[in-house]
Amino acid sequence: MSLALDPAAQDLLFREARTANTFTDEPVTDEQVRAIYDLVKYGPTAFNQSPLRVTLVRSSEARERLVAHMAEGNRPKTASAPLVAILSADNEFHEELPQLFPHFPQAKDAFFSERPVREGAAAVNAALQAAYFIVGVRAAGLAAGPMTGFDFEGVRKEFLDDDHTPLMVVNIGRPGPDAWFPRSPRLEYEQVVTTV
Question: What does pTM read for this prediction?
Fold first, then answer.
């Protein structure tokens, strides 16, 4: 059985897509980011909780502050990408549930009244949304360079607050020279899928 998605789109989103390590200086516009968000916001999350929050780092001053928290090998990439996004989980996402889950507005208090429960749910569902975001960047014809090599607590203190947990930093732009490392192996179907 073949996939319904056109093979060229399959390549763009998955088979040919890679983590970019260099970028051109072509800007990434607010309109492009809005188009990405307006596409990926439809990806499912539990209770439609939608806990992902995106902090766009555009100014040179903010970029310098962020680069200082990146692991040594990630600093040049983050310093030179046209746009950098800090993706975080909003641990107070439940405040939006009456709007996002209107057929059961009591879910806010019935399931998410305790902070540890919210933190767990936010981490899982925001990570899911982060994956949608990366695919959305690719759908816009751009390259994404997601990274977890940074000082999480430093980034949280510098750019977020106690209610937001950083997940990853994503460099965004058009791929530059030698943007790609060689493709690493993937597990085969039989190594991953078990039928019971």
Answer: 0.95
